[in-house]
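Task card 7
Instruction: Convert sequence to structure tokens.
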Amino acid sequence: MAFLSAYSATRKVPIGPAGSGYWVELREHLSKGATEEAERALTSGRVVPGQDFEMSIDTARYRQLMLLAAIVSWNLDDDEGKVWPLTLKSVQDLPGSEFDRLWKVVDDFNSPDSPQERRQFPDAGAGSDPHGDGGPAVPVDVLG
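Output:
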């Protein structure tokens, strides 16, 4: 099994009215490259002459871009039966309740580690020592 194969899982999520047959296939793991544009929307800023720094946080755009990055395919169609293109505009055209349902799935994929995962990969907040020994509490003189 190749390394990235372990991160290639997808999930089909039914959306729309019950029995409509509409679905969206979502990636369970997003690559760092796929999320960069969304992260820039979440944490953008600029230096303003005469001021220190102006920060802009656009959580709506962040969520839209993250959902777009997660979508593998879908069968959502227009009145002529043509499947919607996978674009930001199409994501923005989703009804709010359907967007929120899909966003919850994507957000859950990126939720904090489960207790089992935390036991398997402890960090204890004390550096890289798995036993939690962060070293001496006070600086130690090193002899030359």
